[in-house]
Each structure stands twice: as C-alpha cells, then as structure tokens.
C-alpha cells in the first residue's frame, strides 16, 4: 500500500513511522522543516493522568510504545521524573485513572502519576525524521481519491490513502472534503528558567479559589539539567489570535514571571528562553479523527505525548484493520 502523510510534526512522523513498520510505502510531506510549528521545542510533559478513562488508556498504551521506540533508538525518550497534579481537576482525574486501572495516588489533594515524566521531544523527532525521511513540500489540497495537489500540480496520484496531520493547516486541507475541523487558534507561550534539576514534573491548577493574577492554571517541568519550562493559561481574551503573538507573549511573560516570583522561589525569575505555539482554542486534551474517502484526518491539542498511539490507530484505520 502507498500512503502520503501530510505533516511532519510528531504525530505525522509517528504515523509515517508506524505505517512503514506495517509494510506500507510512505511519503511524508511538510511545508516547513520537520518538528516545527506545534512540535517545536525540546520537551513536553508525558502523563498518564487525564480526565477521561479512554485518554488514560491511550496514554498507557503510548507509554508502552515510547518504551519500544526507546529500545529501537537506544536512548530513553520518556524520563522517570513522575508527574504531580494539583488543583480542582484532581478528583475527576483520579476517578478516570481508577476507572482505567492506572496506578496513581492522591496525597493531601495532590495526584501522583508515577508513569509520567519529561518527554524528550527533540530526540524523538530526530529518531523519527531519520527513519521516515520527510520532504519539504507545500501541499495545496487533497482529493478523496488520495491525490495530493501542490502549486506545481498533482503528485502521488497513485497513492492508496492520505493521512492529514498538518496541525493548523489541517482545517483548510480537509474542509473541501466535508470534514469539519475547528479552525480557531490562539497564541500560547511558555518560558524557560534556571533552577534545580531534581524535582518532579508538576501540573499546578490555580482555579480552586487561590488568587494568582490572571493565570487560570500553570504547569512546569524540567527541560534539561538546571532548567525548567513554565507556562500558564490566560483567559481567552488574553490569548486571542487577533492580539498577535508578540502581544500574547508579552502578557504571558508578565503573568508567568510574577507566578515564578511568588510561587517558585527555587527558580531564577528571569526567563532564559521562550517557546511560542498556536493551540486550537478551547480544545484541551483529546484526539479527533475523521475520514472522507481515502483521506484520514487527525487533529487536537496536547497530542505529543500520545503520538505513538495515534500513529498506531491511524495505521490500523488506513490498512483497513479498524475504522478511523
């Protein structure tokens, strides 16, 4: 079977890699460099903890697949840092983990996820890029019969299937096929601070009555020895697409630095790096797929941690082993 994967972020690469492993002939295309846009940056938080039992189960399977990939690559992609979660989400997330049979504990209102850790996204991306060999091609459209169009004309006319995992570019590519993907985007910025090297990942909820300026929730995780990424979620009005990336970054920086000064005294409050991305507005955790003819589309937010499982599911759908 011949398959074209549109998108060389972590999800597109994971899907292409899994398809190749299943015996398919795969061509992976992206308008930019691999692992750009939403997959940019060195690290992400991997967690089994979610508020939906199905997502907990998906993350548990993803953990197994990350381990398999680590064995193949000869390096560890998910560290054993563990994740702790606080705030108003804890009861619902604990209930979902219990329903899915995931090991965890709640102590003094804090959920401990022992399977969580820091995902080395840069290393995982390099591993997948080397295995897949993506090409830099601007895709202008796809047809339900799996024909892919570029500015120079149609390519891959003999492909049997197309997977569209193009992040922010997915809505426009699949809308003509009748697949409705939310197109609303917002800006988000996280910052890196110097700090200790021996603390667990922490998703910290500030929506339970504690005042913390404009931030509704925060997260922090180690990125490399002596450095921590810290991000905070602002109200919708402060992340609107119309404000522009620079203005949202300015507002985020002020709020996150203030948060670090007051709640994370172990960190130097002067950011040493910043990473910008464009999540879908209000999407939260979750994976969405749809199919039109021979075209399979995938979208969502916070997908990096689930990438191996998403690739596995899309491969099964493309090969006709299940429905997408």
TrEMBL record:
<dbReference type="Pfam" id="PF01266">
    <property type="entry name" value="DAO"/>
</dbReference>
<feature type="domain" description="FAD dependent oxidoreductase">
    <location>
        <begin position="2"/>
        <end position="286"/>
    </location>
</feature>
<keyword id="KW-0285">Flavoprotein</keyword>
<dbReference type="InterPro" id="IPR045170">
    <property type="entry name" value="MTOX"/>
</dbReference>
<dbReference type="InterPro" id="IPR036188">
    <property type="entry name" value="FAD/NAD-bd_sf"/>
</dbReference>
<keyword id="KW-0560">Oxidoreductase</keyword>
<keyword id="KW-0274">FAD</keyword>
<dbReference type="InterPro" id="IPR006076">
    <property type="entry name" value="FAD-dep_OxRdtase"/>
</dbReference>
<protein>
    <recommendedName>
        <fullName>FAD dependent oxidoreductase domain-containing protein</fullName>
    </recommendedName>
</protein>
